[in-house]
Design goal:
Length: about 450
Amino acid sequence: FVRAGLSRPFLRRASNRVGISRSVHAGMASGDETRVAIVGGGVAGIACAQSLVANGFGNRVDIYDQGSRGPGGRTSSSRPVEVNGETMAFDHGAQFFTANDPKFKTVCEELKAKGYVARWDGVFGTLNAFDGVFIPKRRVETSGPPRQDFFKLLTADEVLVGVPTNQAICEGLRALAGDDVTAHWHTTVTGLDRDASGNTWSVSGVNKRRLDEGQAGSKEKRLSGRNAAVVVCDVMAARKGTPGTCAVTGLPERGDTANTWAAFAKVPERVGLFSCMLAFDASAPKPEFDAAVVTGSDVLGLLVRDSSKPGRAKRRDGLERWVAVTTTKFAEETIASAPLTVDGTYNPQTAEYFAKIEPKIVDEARRVLGVACGDDDGEYPAPTHAKCQRWGAAYHSGAVGEGVPGGVCFFDMEAGFGMAGDFIQGPGVEAAWLSGEAVGRATVRKLKAKL
């Protein structure tokens, strides 16, 4: 029994080689009792596959991702929308990321060299929502009590983004190793079943589920069988009433793996956020910053000029794209009155759901942009496009591996059952990658024992 996380974190450091496939497959995966099924095609899931590829097991891996916008989890981008005859997309989840771990920095340098990632040398700082005073990052006080920050925007030496959108982060990670891994995109895993012998796992699920658009997807079917190990890198699988809820059966009664799986339905605490994608006419006033941590607002915590990021398409009409991210307090209060689930059933993100939520975010974004541009009354033009996104688990607070160097994951060697992601390592792209890479190497030990 090898365990990484909870009471005794199992620390692993990243390997030098990375890799994942670009192949797309929606059918039944064959099983030979040395295959691995990875649930979740975000950063952690892809990092897990990279470890397996680096150790020669890439052709034994199936990775499943339910995202209807494409794989990437919270680094995925919005679906393109057409405005004035041109399409545009937003980074509506993760706005940027940073790299501190030496091995993850090496990976990021590879992604830079291949054009998937670029340094964002924008104007960053804090913005007072009352008087519009902007303090550049270089002048933000670093001593004294901890100051408000957002995913290290104010402290990181280098801020990175995907190109042409943040979805390229995962696309780049997938591209680094070629075509070894079998990928099942827009496939929701609904069941993981360990057989009576305790030696192999089968995977069940549905294709093309889009609950926010009222599409339940295909009938549930068996997706693969005879897997030596399964690794869950999507915490939504452990939570009831989500689009990714997954039933796990056959976990060993001895040990605490079954209890650990059940515990992730509640722990660590998931922190919700809303993001609002806004497009303003080219004639709208221009504030002096590209991204600002907002202080003094009950609604907004971050404002990002999405169109200022490197590699973003220039529009003929000059529309500027902004993303407003709410405070956790606003999100908590809003979700309390407009919950993620109703009677145990997922509450979809429909126009009706956002009818009362979106105007509050849009109005506050306009007011704050207005004062930032010198208007004492906070007047700012209405957007030509506005759409909100709910992130019921934007990040996780209190993960056991938060702040721990290296990679922290959970893996039961006997059962061949692993978990990795920011819900174990802590929030952020780098943390997810470190956790996924660690569980991948734990899985390699399991596979080698089977051979």
